[in-house]
Amino acid sequence: MDLVIAENVSKDYITGKIAVRALEEVSFGIAPGSFVSFVGPSGSGKTTLLNLIGCLDRPTLGKLTVAETDVARLDRRSGALFRGQNIGFIFQDFNLIPVLTVYENVEYPLIMVHDVDIKDRKKKVMELIEDVGIGAERNKYPDQLSGGQKQRVAVARALVTAPKLVLADEPTANLDSHTAAMIIGLMKKMRDSLGTTFIFSTHDMRIVGNAEVIHTLRDGKLTDTMKKNAKKRGVHDV
Amino acid sequence: MFRLIKIALRNLLRYKRRTILTMSLITIGVAFVLVFVSVTASFKAMMVGEITDSMLGHIQVHKKGYVASIDNLPLNLNLKLPAFQKVEKKIAEIPEIEAFSPRIKFGGVFSNFVESTNIRLNAVDPEKEWATVPLLPSRIISGSKTIRPGEILVPELLAKGMKVGVGDTAVVVATNEDGSVNGYQFTVGGILRSVTGPGGRDGYIHIEDGRQILRMEEPEISEVAIRLKKFNTLENVAARLQETLGKEINAQGKPAFEIHTWKKLTPFFNIVRMIDVMTFFIKLMLIAIVLISVMNVMIMAVYERTREIGTIAAIGTLPGRILSLFVIEGLSLGLLGAASGTVFGGLAVIVLNAIKIKFNFGRQQGLILALSLNVTDILTISLIVVGVAVLAGFQPAFRASRLEPIKALRHV
Q1: CA B65, B69, B72 angle in degrees (round to 5)?
Q2: Domains in chain B: how many in total?
Q3: How far apart are CA B65 and CA B1, in angstroms?
């Protein structure tokens, strides 16, 4: 069964008295363990869709199921609990907590969200920061890191709770192309080793090729879906 | 919880200058209030001690109606022997009472054979009086430290005006309850330092001499002054005396006695109340300082860290934990401010004690203020500061916890 199922999902934003439709009847399914990208120009609805999948927002119409949960039914508290249990986030601006070290940033969800005991916490955090290649920087603060290092920390933080799904909104937008390729490579490597589903949005066509499934959005509509080694109506091999 | 505190403290250090400024404000406020409370409490304690321990005693028992006419020192409102014995018996039943002294108070004319003036006299048993008002002997600035029959202690101002000194002879003329006048020759046994308030110009004689001047066939008493073992039992003991003596009925079916604490017997109590009101307003100012400064810092913190709040909310931090995080920041500001304020307040008290602040109060000159900080004041002020800091931090913290992650993440 798909981890994410969108059925005719629409999202309207009300600006003053005008309703602006950001997503229009979008339907798709994302299998567990897949490496999926949503592409499209700015304003195409990528971030809106990721926010809906991440339970940060609710669809106006349609049904969106994540990990067998109808996200529209989640209130503030249960939404937070659900995100903490099932979803990791990687942000375009890294969004690390500046007063915490690399180690503490990665450790943060285990303390604030999961209440993991100190021994397990240390083991998980150390393993992950070694895996993402920032073990040597573990005592540094975010302002002492490069953009690529910050995003590695963000990847580790997203994965530390062993979520079913990691959402990355434009994770390479603030990185040079070499670092961007490295981060996408790292995400893919982590997917391979942990089996976590990765969904990322980008308008950078240089990194899209790493995705196994590419959904194209334009003006809030899903216009195309490409899958490697799969071909059906509207679905092309990459 | 430890991690939350650690994160909260680091967040405070993130904006060092702002945190230091806010903490300084709280520190200055706490230190100032502590010094003020210490000065006023010391002043109050000194003045109350001076008044109760050298003149009034802590509680006084009179015949009903005496205090209303106290300025006239009415002899017809004296306690007769059976009434006094009742008072003695009830006093003996209260273990909190340390000592008591029966007094005969009357007005008379003091003459040095050349000129004469009015005088208020207290006829007392020196042993009992010294035990009840132990500072009285220290007011004797020259002469004998006791009162022997035939001797009179004359207040300083009167002695100066009448040009009498220790060893001189003087005559006291007084009218008794029946209206007959009697004169009695005394030797000036000592000169009393003046104190502020009624009683500051009172002379003292032996109780036996008092009875003779007033030609009392049976012993009578104007008032019974009482000293307590612990001053803080004042209201409790007064209430118990009221319960027992206050319910005694005289032959006319009316209350026989009236019981008053020192508060009802001296206008200084109004000054004490004024000082308490001032202290209250000073504490209100401190509350305002803490409230405004902490709230300002926390509102700014929430505003500046909105995206961060969005991030921690997005990764699953529950609203309650976000609330705790910010409340702990406010709490930490309050705790640190209260702690450093207490340290600085304590240091200021030590310095002021070393300087030995002198002041004059009424006729009393060169009183040295002995400041001390008591634990109750420190705890009260610290609790106020910490409580207000938490309260001030709560509103911004609540706002932070209610932020929609998606909106917070978009915040620039």
Answers
A1: 140
A2: 2
A3: 65
- A109 vs B contacts (CB less than 8 Å): 315-316
pLDDT digits (tens, 9 = 90+) for A8-43: 999 998 888 888 888 999 999 999 989 899 998 888
Tell me the domains of chain A and their CATH numbers. Answer: 4-236 (3.40.50.300)
Low-confidence stretches of chain A (pLDDT < 70) are: 206, 229-238
B142: left (phi over 0), alpha (psi -120 to 50) or beta: beta
Is residue B264 one of the residues assigned to a domain?
no
pLDDT tens track for B243-284: 888 888 877 888 889 999 998 888 888 888 898 899 889 888
The answer to whether A77 faces chain B, any CB pair under 8 Å, is: yes
Flag if A113 and B409 touch (Cβ within 8 Å): no
Among residues B335, B389, B374, which one has the least CA distance to residue B34?
B374
* Predicted pLDDT of residue A231: 40
Full residue range of the structural domain in which residue B275 is found: 2-51+269-410
Backbone angles phi, psi at B140, to 5 degrees: -80, 105
Is A81 in contact with B318 (Cβ distance < 8 A)? yes
Q: Structure pTM?
A: 0.73
Task: Find the residue in A nearest to B324 (Cα).
Answer: A112
φ and ψ at A71, to 5 degrees?
A: -65, -20
> Sign (positive/negative) of CA torsion B104, B110, B171, B56?
positive
Decide: B246 and B259 in contact? Cβ < 8 Å: yes
Q: A81 at the B interface (CB within 8 A)? A: yes
The DSSP letter of residue A232 is B
Q: Which residues of B lie inside 8 Å of A (Cβ-Cβ)?
A: 3, 7, 10-11, 13-14, 307-308, 310-319, 321, 405-406, 409
Q: Tell me the backbone φ, ψ of residue A191, rounded to 5 degrees.
A: -60, -45
Sequence letter at residue A35: F
pLDDT digit string, tens, across residues B348-372: 999 988 888 777 766 566 777 788 8
On whether residue B373 sits in a domain, the answer given is yes
Q: What is the ipTM of this complex?
A: 0.86
Beta strands in B236-288 (DSSP E): 257-261
Same domain, B44 and B71: no
Judged by CB atoms within 8 Å, which residues 8-47 of A form the interface with B?
none
Task: Tell me the torsion sign for CA atoms B131, B133, B135, B140.
Answer: negative
The bridge status of strand A197-202 relative to strand A165-169 is parallel
CA distance A156 to chain B (A): 13
- Minimal-distance CA residue of chain A relative to B12: A99
